[in-house]
Recover the amino acids of this structure.
């Protein structure tokens, strides 16, 4: 049997063996301590959390005390939005975009039902939000602006720095969901000029069940979870020590490789697109042609149906997706592609191919062959 080709790294990435090895002691009988316990077993776990927190702080350019560990990207996004809005009270205003991941979009909608005002900004045909539209939406009641660093479906990168200047000039905070960028681009809170930032371990070859929220010190934020005083009172509950240790190790391994790997993936992605265009008539790229994630290809095959394409790809041994993992499997058209204003035949035929560390030139070539055959058969 030929090996499967995994092209869904935006949904999740495989755990690196080194990360698993780093986690193992904390899953075993001699490393199971509760980091809040004062005895030696607890303190060993506490030290492991400290190391991971230090790694995250350095990677993001923040301070040790500005990092709160969460259960993942979703919780980090919820903690940022709900935490800031609750701290300011009902009637305050949140600005976000129409193409956020559900972890932000649905949280914003939830806040609306509790009496907060929310503006969902439109994006252009390449999936970018314009800084001017942010400026126009800001009011004296705006507390928080949440704009993702790069979109998980089409890979478009937003002009965050420009947006930050405008947001701060009006005295509001800027949150960004950097879940998709952290593994591929420099993500530095001072350079991006953001006040809150979310990341997730399983998108950077770490384990599922760990994430982090950066909150600039001095910002008042309510906690989502109440109970013990873990995470400096920001998030009650005994920490998921093995997963957080794995997150730290994944980030430690990521940093020295990130730039070269991003360059490799950009090249591979461009070859992939060029080959698809050469072999298959009427392939259209969705999202921005250059301001996009190194590993992301989102392409439409007008006239065909994405579900059918994905099932055929799966049968041929290729894992791809039609959008975010949470919405694939449902027949709802993607809110991202719809917000971009794509015609229906492009929305319905869009598939997302996301490359990663183990993707090779050979796998790309084989996937092009497979897709060309599938498309030809379906169009016939
Ligand atoms: N934000 C973005 C942009 C994502 O792509 C994802 C995962 O698909 C999430 C948030 C949610 O992260 P997690 O799966 O860690 O909850």
């Amino acid at each position: 049997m030929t090996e499967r080709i995994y092209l869904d790294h935006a949904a999740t990435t495989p755990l690196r063996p080194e990360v698993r090895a780093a986690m193992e002691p904390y899953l075993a009988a001699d490393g199971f301590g509760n980091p809040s316990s004062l005895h030696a077993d607890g303190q060993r776990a506490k030290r492991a959390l400290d190391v991971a927190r230090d790694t995250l702080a350095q990677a993001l350019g923040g301070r040790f005390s500005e990092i709160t560990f969460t259960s993942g990207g979703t919780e980090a996004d919820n903690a940022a939005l709900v935490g800031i809005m609750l701290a300011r009270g009902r009637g305050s205003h949140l600005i976000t975009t129409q193409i956020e991941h559900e972890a932000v979009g649905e949280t914003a909608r939830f806040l609306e039902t509790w009496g907060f005002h929310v503006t969902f900004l439109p994006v252009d045909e390449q999936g970018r939000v314009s800084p001017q539209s942010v400026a126009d939406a800001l009011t004296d009641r705006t507390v928080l602006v949440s704009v993702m660093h790069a979109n998980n479906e089409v890979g478009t990168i937003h002009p965050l720095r420009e947006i930050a200047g405008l947001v701060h000039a009006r005295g509001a905070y800027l949150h960004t969901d950097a879940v998709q960028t952290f593994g591929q681009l420099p993500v530095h809170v001072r350079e991006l000029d953001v006040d809150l930032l979310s990341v997730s371990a399983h998108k950077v070859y770490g384990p599922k069940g760990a994430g982090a929220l950066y909150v600039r010190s001095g910002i008042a934020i309510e906690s989502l979870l109440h109970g013990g005083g873990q995470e400096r009172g920001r998030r009650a509950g005994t920490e998921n020590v093995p997963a957080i240790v794995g997150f730290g190790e994944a980030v430690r391994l990521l940093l020295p490789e990130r730039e070269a790997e991003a360059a490799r993936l950009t090249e591979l992605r461009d070859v992939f697109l060029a080959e698809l265009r050469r072999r298959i008539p009427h392939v259209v790229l969705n999202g921005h042609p250059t301001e996009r994630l190194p590993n992301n290809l989102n392409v439409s095959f007008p006239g065909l149906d994405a579900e059918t394409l994905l099932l055929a790809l799966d049968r041929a041994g290729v894992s791809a997706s039609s959008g975010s993992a949470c919405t694939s499997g449902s027949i709802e058209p993607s809110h991202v592609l719809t917000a971009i204003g794509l015609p229906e035949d492009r929305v319905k035929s869009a598939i997302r191919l996301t490359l990663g560390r183990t993707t090779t030139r050979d796998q790309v070539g084989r996937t092009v062959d497979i897709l060309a055959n599938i498309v030809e058969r379906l169009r016939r």
